[in-house]
Amino acid sequence: MSQVWGVFGSFSTFSRLTSAANDDWVDRMSHIYSSVVLVLFAIVVTTGQLVGDPIHCWCPAQFTGAYVAYTKWICWISNTYYIPMSDTIPVNINEREDRQLTYYQWVPLILLFQALLFKAPNLLWRILHGTSGVNLDKLCELAEKTQYGSPDDRKKTIEHIAYFMDRWLDSNRIYHCNFVVKTRQKFAKICCCFCGKREGTYLSGLYLTIKVLYLVNIIGQFFMLNSFLSTDFGIYGFQVMQHFNEYGAFKESPLFPRVTLCDFSIRQMTNLQRFTVQCVLPINLFNEKIFIFLWFWFVFVAVLASANMISWLYYMIYRRNNAAYVKKYLKLSATPLINNDKKQYRNFADNYLRNDGVFVLRVIGKNSTDLVLTDLVKQLWKIFKEKPTS
Questions:
Q1: CA torsion sign, 16 to 20 to 23 to 26?
Q2: Which residues cross the membrane (predicted)?
């Protein structure tokens, strides 16, 4: 419970909101940059609605000032509908209602909700990854700080990180084997998401699940906007590009019309008068450009999230990647690998570090430098070699 309150209490500053560097830059494209873009757009649209006049209506000549003000606000809150100038206005009221634009009053709220959805996987990661027993935030922070300290301080910090990781790895190790444990270990080798801490797959499996959530979120954004805008938002960008190629400029989209129609009734004693007025929606100038940008941004983030998830899935499932990964940094550290060591570095990767240990090294490497990671792997190798069971 304290971890949950710690996460939500961290919203007090923007630096806390962006979270510690315990993921990779593709994740931050979603939970930081996408969220910030959506919040900024929500502020722009809200400012346009509150500060300026979001709608102007051309009223009949007999309307006084009070009638004009009433017309403007009743048309703003009760939805307008779009009929092209070349088309005849339908006589049937139901046909007009079917063409109503129901989104423009709610754009700021939907943008803020989208920002929350982009942030949600990161919030879940920050709440759950601490239950693995390792403070990944602190490890990444210490590793980053070693780049700016003195050689002695750097060496001590690397040793402290390695010592802490060794204690963490030992605390999550299985010391009693039976049929159930062996079965779980076999499943862990097949699927890193299946088992937990004792199998050394909890942290890596959780991170892979978060990766899936990032991808599900960005794909779900298109379906949500399809429903919100009552259109096929998935092809909206292609329609914009097609119009741009045909006309050499952005053509007004029927999805975001600037000139619309509004029906309303005024009750006068027993008489009910119905009026149809023509209105201008200046706010749709912003909405159109915002959603054009969001379409291209979402496609870009979706491609990155897909490629990134596939690469992490390959790293975690294909076990030889772990051995190759640590071997690379052992070679960079000039650690001699004799014939006997060739089996030991696989034992080092697969049985000592395991998936979670190698995952922590990958995250540290993505948020510091190869030099820091080389020294850390070398220190962990030294600890491993000194163990009597190695």
A1: positive
A2: 30-51, 206-224, 290-315
Output the pLDDT for position 244.
Answer: 62
Residue 226: count of CB within 10 angstroms of its CB: 15
Is 177 within a domain? Answer: no
Question: Which residues of the chain register pLDDT less than 70?
Answer: 1-20, 173-196, 198, 243-252, 269, 319, 335-342, 389-390
Q: Which domain holds residue 97?
A: 21-172+190-386
| Of 118, 140, 116, residue with least CA distance to 129 | 140
Residue 6 falls within a domain, yes or no? no
Type of residue found at 139: L
The tokens describing 162, both together, are 């390695």
Q: Which of 76, 126, 65, 134 is nearest to 105 (CA)?
A: 76
User: Structure tokens of 231?
Assistant: 């259109």
Residue 9 maps to a domain: no
Burial of 33 (0-12, 13-18, 19+ CB in 10 A): middle
